[in-house]
Amino acid sequence: MDNPNLAPALADNGVKWIASDNSREPQQRPVGGAVTVPRHPMNVYYNVGTAAEMADEYNWIYTSRADGGSGVCETDPASTCLDEPIDVATGYGTHIVPQEARIALGHIVANDPRPHYVHQSNLAEDRILYPVLDRILADYQATFADNTPLVNPRHRDAGTELSRRAAWQSALDAERVTAYRIGTTVTVRAPGGVVVPVTAPEGTRKQLLLGTSAFGTAYAGQRSAWTQPELLQSAVTLRLPS
User: Fold this and answer.
1) Are 19 and 60 in contact (CB under 8 A)?
2) Can you tell me the mean pLDDT for 71-88?
3) pTM (2 decimals)?
4) Residue 79 and which of 100, 133, 149, 236 are 20 to 30 A apart at CA?
C-alpha cells in the first residue's frame, strides 16, 4: 500500500511518472495523477561495493548449506543452487558479470522498454556496475549493425511506450483492430484514442488528407512509428514503395 501522502506530493510537484519494481509490479498503475514505470532490478546488490563482497553474498544466496550457503536455493522453487561456490576473488568477473549482462541484453533484444535500475553503492569502491554495462554494450554492438543503435529513452518516454502497448494489446484482445493490404496500400483501423504501432519498408509514405508525407523514423533499414489517422480520416493509410 502506498503512503497516503505520496499521491498528493506527486501532484503538488507536477510528477507524472514514478518508478516501480518490475519484479513486484510488472504492469503500470496510477498513483494519483502519476503513472508507474516498472523497472527491471539488476542482480548487483544494494549493500555491496566490491567484487569480493558481491561474490561472497552471491555464494550465500545461491549455494547449498553443505557448501556453506544459506540453503535458500534448496527450498525456493524459483531458485537454483550453484554446483559449487564461485571463487570470491574472480567469480564476479567470470560468472556474475556475463550472467547479468546476458539477462539485461535479453530484455533489450526483446524490445522491452522497461528501464533497469541499480544502486549507488555499485558506483563506489570497485565500481562494480561498470563491467556489467561494458559487457552489455559490447555484446550489443557485436550483434547489431550500426543502423540499429541502442536506444535509451527518457523515463517519461518509457512510460508512454508501455501505456501505448497496453492500450494496443487491449484493442487486439477485444478484436477491435482491422488491418489489411491491397496492392501497395496498407490500412489499419483501431478504436479512437488507440495509437497504432507500425514498422514498414524504407520509402513508405503516409496518406494525408491532401497528399502524403514520409512515414516514421528510420531504424534498422526500415521505418517505424506509433501513428494515428490524420485529420478527417478513420484509419491509418500507408503507401508502400513499389
Assistant:
1) no
2) 93
3) 0.88
4) 133
Of 71, 103, 100, 64, nearest to 85 by C-alpha is: 64
The amino acid at residue 148 is T
pLDDT at position 1 is 78
Q: What's the pLDDT score for residue 83?
A: 93
d(CA 198, CA 238): 10
- All three cell numbers of 18, joined, read 514514478
Please provide the average confidence, as pLDDT, over all residues in the chain: 95
Q: Quick check: 89 and 71 in contact, CB under 8 A?
A: no
Contact between 40 and 107 under an 8 Å Cβ cutoff? The reply is yes
Strand ranges, E, within the chain: 17-21, 30-31, 34-41, 116-117, 178-182, 185-189, 196-201, 205-207, 212-214, 217-219, 222-227, 236-239
The residues, ordered by sequence, that sit 6+ positions from 30 with a Cβ below 8 Å of its Cβ are 36
Neighbouring C-beta atoms of residue 123, cutoff 10 Å: 13
* Chain segment 152-210, per-residue pLDDT in tens: 999 999 999 999 999 999 999 999 999 999 999 999 999 999 999 999 999 999 999 99
Alpha-carbon dihedral sign for residues 6, 11, 15, 20? positive
Other beta carbons within 10 angstroms of residue 174's beta carbon come to 9
